[in-house]
Amino acid sequence: MKWLELLQVAGATLVSAVVLVVLYSLGVRLTAVAADAGNRAPVVLRSLAYLCFAACGAAVLFGIYLIVPYFSK
Q1: pLDDT tens-digit map of 37-53
Q2: Cα angle vertex 39, ends 47, 45, to 5°?
């Protein structure tokens, strides 16, 4: 068995899972802060939250692209 390749896949999986969780939770947090901000730039915070959600969605779609053989032909 090729242990180095197994460790690379495990590391990439761990890193991408952590990145997805951080992006999504940051988006949720920025949405909540924008709702509580009142007049203090909620548009900027909400835009950053939507950017985090979009990056999270793009990462998920890229993962699906890598997994499904039909898309990578």
Answers
A1: 776 678 889 999 999 99
A2: 20
pTM: 0.82
Cα-based torsion angle of the residue sequence 63, 23, 56, 34 in order, rounded to the nearest 10 degrees: 170
Question: Which of 52, 16, 18 lies closest to 33, judged by CA?
Answer: 52
Q: Is residue 8 part of a domain?
A: yes
With respect to residue 33, please indicate whether it lies within any of the assigned structural domains: yes
What's the pLDDT tens digit per position in 5-38? 999 999 999 999 999 999 999 999 999 998 887 7
Residue type, 15: V
